[in-house]
Design a protein that fits this description.
This protein has a single domain, classed as Rossmann fold, CATH 3.40.50. Helix 2 runs parallel beside helix 3. It is α/β, with parallel strands linked by helices. Helix content is 44%, strand content 14%.
């Protein structure tokens, strides 16, 4: 009888992060907050990074109440040293880095492309693309030293198909996130680092609400599931991609969008 797959871990073991250290950027609200808490519930020690110190300390407190190790770093990843600082902080506090969820992002105020100032382009691409490049550089270096790890980048359905006028820069930046993810995944999979992305769509987050969508109920009604998504649903996808349960998944962009891209 064939024994192929007989050494695979059980489902519970495969989705556990006990003994592992997870880094979550943009971890003070929305999808980042939900993901930090989900990692903690699965046993991970969690380093939380974000701009809002009050919210960040609150997330760290909840993580600790869940019985997991926690630390918060207030950092602006659009600054040249932000990404390196967050990886150094994680290594100094916890000694290793097993999983990184690169989630920090911004969206421009809605305006047609020709009306967007150069300063908005610079700020958005510094936050959404350059900081991701710098974060992956630092994360990959740390993971190579310890023999492997997993990285999940937060992209967007807008990087695949942008159906909204006024956010061309955001859409272009998220297309770059998907491309960077795939290229890095091919380079580092042979070295023990799995890199993937998630593309949320129509998720109720502070960023989405700040975009001032005129009729959220109409947006939800247009989806096959007839509802908006929750940050916790994206968090579960992130954890799966980062876990041993997804050990054969490399360079993938997983859409969590209620069927938006299937229409």
């Amino acid at each position: 009888m064939s024994q192929v797959g007989s050494s695979a871990p059980s489902r519970d073991d495969a989705t556990s992060f006990r003994g592992k250290v997870a880094l979550v950027s943009g971890g003070t609200s929305g999808i980042g907050r939900a993901t930090a808490l989900a990692f903690a519930r699965r046993g991970a020690t969690v380093a939380i990074v974000g701009r809002n110190a009050e919210r960040g300390r609150e997330v760290a407190r909840i993580v600790a109440e869940l019985g997991a190790g926690a630390a918060f770093l207030a950092a602006d990843l659009s600054r040249p040293d932000g990404a390196r600082r967050m990886v150094d902080f994680t290594l100094e506090r916890f000694g290793r880095l097993d999983v990184a969820f690169n989630n920090a992002a911004m969206q421009e105020p809605r305006a047609l492309l020709a009306e967007q100032p150069d300063e908005t382009f610079d700020a958005l691409f510094d936050t959404n693309v350059k900081s991701l490049f710098q974060a992956m550089k630092a994360e990959i270096a740390a993971m190579l030293r310890q023999g492997g790890g997993a990285i999940v980048n937060n992209a967007s359905v807008s990087g695949v198909r942008n159906a909204n006028a006024g956010i061309a820069l955001y859409a272009a930046s998220k297309a770059a996130v998907i491309s960077l993810t795939r290229s890095a995944a091919m380079e580092y999979a042979p070295l023990g680092i799995r890199i993937n992305a998630v593309s949320p769509g129509r998720i109720t987050t502070p960023m989405m609400l700040a975009a001032k969508i005129a009729d959220v109920e109409a947006v939800a009604a247009a989806l096959p599931l007839k509802r908006m998504g929750r940050p916790e649903e994206v968090a579960e996808a992130v954890l799966w991609l980062a876990s041993d349960a997804a050990s054969f998944v490399v360079g993938h962009n997983l859409s969590i969008d209620g069927g938006f891209l299937a229409q």
